[in-house]
Amino acid sequence: MNKGKIYLIAGLVVFCLAIGGYAIVSHDAISAEDSSEMTESKPSMADQSVAGLDVAAAMAPRGYGDPNAPVVIEEYASLTCGHCAAFHNQVFPQLKEKYIDTGKVYFIFNDFPLNQPAMAGAAMARCLPETQYFKFIAYLFETQDKWAFDQNFEKYLTQNAKLLGLSGDAIETCLESEELRKALVTKIQDASRQYE
């Protein structure tokens, strides 16, 4: 079996695990119309890109391990998905220790936000320095019960993003960037079409 086939099979297996959480949270796939609430920021920012944010750099793939590893696993997960959190908190540490850290697997994480708190978390994570990205993602999964279903989720996310080096202005830029939100929603839609 060649690397391409291993890549696809591993990607689909982890994708199915993540989508299991999606099926519980929402019964409908996200369409362009359904995603309007997620892409809309403050009304004054409706049709503007926020200056100072390199969206292409923010949306660059985020991976763990050796990119030349014989197996590549791609995960699609929402920061507010309970099954995704269970995977990251209980299974991922073992996967990392046995396969990623030993050079057998390269792991790619793809944001698949299913609601407004997950979108805000994904946007902030994407705006952090790349070296802090996985720390933030891991922390949000570990503390999901404290923020994901709270009306003040932005306050919690902001406090923790600041601890990892994101300034208040940068956080505001991330949350107000319609271009970044559209890029995240486009990624969701592309994955949904690719794996349906």
Describe the structure concisely for a colleague:
The protein is mostly helical and 196 residues long.
Task: Give a verbal description of the structure.
It is a single chain. This protein is mostly helical and 196 residues long. It has ten helices and three strands. Strand 2 (71-77), helix 4 and strand 3 form a beta-alpha-beta unit. It is globular, with a radius of gyration of 16 Å.
Task: Give the helices and strands, then pairings.
Elements: H1 3-25, H2 36-39, H3 55-58, E1 62-64, E2 71-77, H4 82-100, E3 105-111, H5 116-127, H6 130-142, H7 144-147, H8 153-163, H9 168-176, H10 178-194
Parallel strand pairs: 2-3
Antiparallel strand pairs: 1-3
Helix pairs in contact: 1-4, 5-6, 5-8, 5-9
N-to-C span: 24 Å
Indicate the percent of residues in helices.
Answer: 55-70%
Q: Into which percentage range does the β-strand content fall?
A: 5-15%
| Secondary-structure element string | HHHEEHEHHHHHH
Radius of gyration: 16 Å
How is the main sheet built?
3 strands, mixed
Q: What's the total number of strands?
A: 3
How many separate helices? Answer: 10
Main sheet strand line-up: 1-3-2
- Quote the average pLDDT: 79
Structural category is: mainly alpha
Describe the global form: globular
Enumerate the spans where pLDDT stays under 50 for 5 or more consecutive residues.
Answer: 4-50
| Subunit organisation of the chains | single chain
Question: Tags for this entry?
Answer:
single chain; 196 residues; mainly alpha; 3 strands
